[in-house]
Design brief:
single chain, 6-stranded antiparallel barrel, 6 helices
């Protein structure tokens, strides 16, 4: 049967539309392929760049850790006889503290990072160390030196930035923690000593009295002891200790440009911050 002219036109139109559709589909598929190829290449470049950047940072971190470990070992080798250290510390304080230094000093540690040096102390059994959070700010490597000159690697348990408290852990569990007093019982005029490592000097002690309690800090909390015991860079994170050998506060800061006006976070706040960190990390309190 011969197709009529109008049938031929319809069939030709349909064929043309099919051809156009196929061409458009091909072009569309081609453009999608090109776009996917470009995105794939771009993603590969980003991954390669990220891998390079990550490797560079890892190399920098490794170098920093190695450098810090070397410095820590060197520092540890410079520590003299602990008996000599204790004798010197006893001689630098009044009779009120000469009998407690030997016990308390064994729980005080030096904290050395790749950018600074400060103090801390054993807060709970199991190798837990507390110090100020600002001590670790910006650091990528850190270690702890105990009274016996041993250098310990540390792991981070957690921190409370509001109270400037950070909880660390060393693997050696053989060190005894210091005991915290109830800071609500602290009295004005009580004698105290600040033990730490001011300006990099190992186990320095300064003596003073409590001249204020429940002072307001920069965080808005009325949680600070004011003392005239000299606090210097490196004392941060060290304990403020009473005549019974117990911790009344953790040395935090001094007022710039003044002589012997320092502040320590009260012991009850230390306990609260440490236990909050422990609950988040382990589901139970430590002290």
């Amino acid at each position: 049967m011969t197709l009529k002219r109008k049938h031929k036109i319809i069939i030709g139109s349909i064929s043309s539309l099919l051809i156009i559709f196929m061409l458009m589909s091909s072009l569309f598929s081609y453009f999608i392929f090109i776009r996917q190829s470009e995105e794939y290449n771009s993603l590969n470049q980003k991954i390669t760049s990220l891998q390079t950047d990550t490797q560079t940072k890892l190399n920098e971190l490794t170098e920093s850790v190695i450098k810090t470990q070397t410095e820590l070992k060197n520092l540890g080798s410079q520590i003299g006889s602990i008996d000599e250290e204790i004798s010197n510390l006893k001689a630098s304080t009044s009779a009120d503290f000469s009998g407690i230094i030997e016990d308390t000093i064994k729980s005080v540690v030096t904290i050395r990072t790749d950018i600074s040096q400060a103090s801390g102390f054993i807060i709970a059994n199991g190798g837990y160390v507390v110090t100020n959070a600002h001590v670790m700010e910006g650091a990528v490597a850190a270690g702890v030196i105990t009274y016996d000159g041993k250098v310990h690697r540390v792991s981070l348990v957690g921190e409370n930035t509001l109270m400037d408290i950070i909880l660390l852990k060393i693997n050696d569990t053989g060190y005894s923690p210091l005991t915290l007093v109830d800071s609500n019982t602290i009295q004005l005029g009580e004698k105290v000593i600040a033990i730490g490592n001011p300006l990099g000097l190992q186990f320095s002690v300064s003596e003073g009295i409590i001249s204020g309690i429940h002072r307001e800090g920069a965080n808005g909390l009325e949680a600070y002891i004011q003392t005239d015991a000299a606090l210097n860079p490196g004392n941060s994170g060290g304990p403020l200790i009473d005549v019974s050998g117990k911790v009344v506060g953790i040395n935090n800061y001094k007022i710039s440009g003044t002589e012997n006006i320092g502040f320590a976070l009260e012991s009850n706040y230390i306990k609260s911050a440490v236990n909050d960190i422990a609950v988040k990390a382990y589901g139970h309190t430590l002290i």
